[in-house]
Amino acid sequence: MAASLVSLLTAPLISAVLGGAIALVFLAGYLRRKRAAIAHIPPSATAAAPDQPKHVRPSNQAHHKKGHARPHHNAADKDAAKKHHHLDVNTLRGHTDSVTALHFSNDGANLATVCADGAVRVFRIDDTSSKSFKILRINLPAGAHPTGVAFSEGSSSVVVAAQALLGSSLYMYADVSAPPTAQNKQQGKLSPPEIKWSHQKIHGKESVLNLAAARATHGPGDGSTIIISCSEATDIKVWHGKSGKELGTVDTNQLKNNMADISPNGRFIAAAAFTADVKVWEIVYSKDSSVKEVNKVMQLMGHKSAVTSLCFAPNSEQIITASKDGSIRVWNINVRYHLDEDPKTLRVLSIPLHDSKGSVCQYDHMSISPDGKILAVTSGSTLQWLCVETGAVLDTAEKAHEGDITGIAWAPRTILNGGVPAFILGSAGVDKKVKLWLAPEAGST
Questions:
Q1: Where are the residues of the annotated region Disordered (predicted)?
Q2: Residue 65's pLDDT band (cuts 50, 70, 90)
Q3: Cα–Cα distance between 249 and 130 in angstroms, integer?
């Protein structure tokens, strides 16, 4: 009876063990095939993930012997690294987040940028075709997110606007072009500059939309740098670049500011807001070169919709405005406004850029070349150059950046490009890049 019971139990047990062994054999074979399939996925398939950093993307380059040509697995990546436009000169890298603003020094030899990573970078640009550039990095105080930057005294100092929890602040850093110390020179770094002056909550809790700077050369102006900060509310403040003294405040009373600019001679301030008119103020200087007052003197009326951007001509006698009504206007402000003479519209040009649906695009940023002949404009990620005189399109760079362009600025004088002097435009974008562009031929169409 006992032997019979053991026999009955042993048969199912042996069957179960054999069945489990067979299942394990099949499972092991499947896993080996799966690993082999994964191991043979071409690197181009994994490199296609844009969010994955290059240094962690799988690659079989380590298996190739030194001196042997490496196979080209991803033509798209290689092509993307090439300059996609004939005016594209160079790309300044090193930013780890969106670049929020940029500004050239008066001599054009330095370009300051501010980035959402909380740092200011000053690039030394001796020749735009260089393979590398000397960079000075300045870390802002903790929690400060920079929104604007402007050189103060020549190329020796920069003023930075930064937004924090309690509001916007201004910081002035001096000696940003100082030579490296002996110790830092060996490390290839410059000694960090110091904050010479700062102001907190300059516009209450409102953010600074942009900074603009100019040398006070009009009338009794002594050539000092005058800086304006435009808040996202309705106020604009005027500052002395070197001392940090607040020189005046104006209120646009236009619902909300869009941006503001100061004329190259430091005389006029103009503001674009979400209205169709543009208000202009004059900075009045005393005989001792100090700022006496800031008075509203003109109003540019003619657009039918909100003005999105504006800029002054190099001669400080003209203002160029772009509006949502699809037009660009060139204004003559060299009038006897104290005799109630109104500014005159010299030209009305149509915005030539249209979207895929045929609608007129909105220009976000404008900047005019130092010779006053070329107007650079942006809309989203598109960069365009126009003839100031005729409005003709000189050139267009679609997708100039991989995302929206956050700012543009011309170098105030020619810079060497391959040893040849040239007008250079800088552009910044959310793609963590700053690009340098050659000016197109002003006479081309």
A1: 43-84
A2: very low
A3: 42
Whether 443 maps to a domain, the answer reads no
CATH number (domain holding residue 212): 2.130.10.10
pLDDT confidence of residue 274: 85
Please tell me the distance from the alpha carbon of residue 85 to that of residue 437, in angstroms, as a whole number: 9
Rg (CA), the chain: 30
Nearest Cα residue to 176 out of 282, 103, 244? 103
| H or E element that contains 220 | none
- pLDDT tens figures, 161-179: 999 988 999 999 998 975 5
Residue 156 has pLDDT above 70, yes or no: yes
Our measurement of the distance from residue 251's CA atom to the centroid of its chain's CA atoms, rounded to an integer in Å, reads 27
**Is residue 126 included in any domain, yes or no?**
yes
In a domain, 445, yes or no: no
CA–CA gap between residue 168 and residue 357 (Å, rounded): 39
> Who contacts 166 (Cβ-Cβ below 8 Å, separation ≥6)?
200, 201, 205
Rounded-to-integer distance, Cα 196 and Cα 43, Å: 51
Task: Quick: pLDDT tens for 212-232.
Answer: 999 999 999 999 999 999 999
Query: How many C-beta atoms surround the C-beta of residue 379 within 10 A?
Result: 22
How many degrees, rounded to 5, is the angle at CA 103 between CA 321 and CA 223? 85
Distance between alpha carbon 7 and the CA centroid of its chain, in Å? 84
Number of domains in the chain: 2
Cα–Cα distance, 224 to 220 (Å, whole number)? 11
Asked if 147 contacts 208 with a C-beta cutoff of 8 angstroms, the reply is yes
Q: Are residues 226 and 117 in the same domain?
A: no
Contact between 239 and 245 under an 8 Å Cβ cutoff? The reply is yes
159 & 274 share domain: no
Examine the domain organization and report whether 194 and 97 are in the same domain. Answer: yes
The residue type of 420 is: V
Q: Write out pLDDT tens, residues 10-44.
A: 555 555 555 555 555 455 554 444 433 333 333 33
Which of the 8 DSSP states describes residue 108?
S
Query: From the CB of residue 35, how many other CB atoms can be counted at a distance below 10 Å?
Result: 10
Q: Which residues of 247-280 are buried (b: 16+ CB within 10 A; e: fewer)?
A: bbebebebeebbbbbbbbbbbbbbbbbebbebbb
Tens digit of pLDDT for each residue in 297-317?
999 999 999 999 999 999 999
